[in-house]
Amino acid sequence: MSQKATKKWLQLFLQLYRLSSLFATNYIGYGGNMNPLAYITTIAFGLSLVANALNALKLSTQWSFWLIYNLVQLAKAGIQGNFANVGKIHFLYC
Question: Which residues are within 8 A (CB) of 44 and not within 5 positions of it... i.e. 6 or more apart?
Answer without folding.
Answer: 69, 72, 73, 76
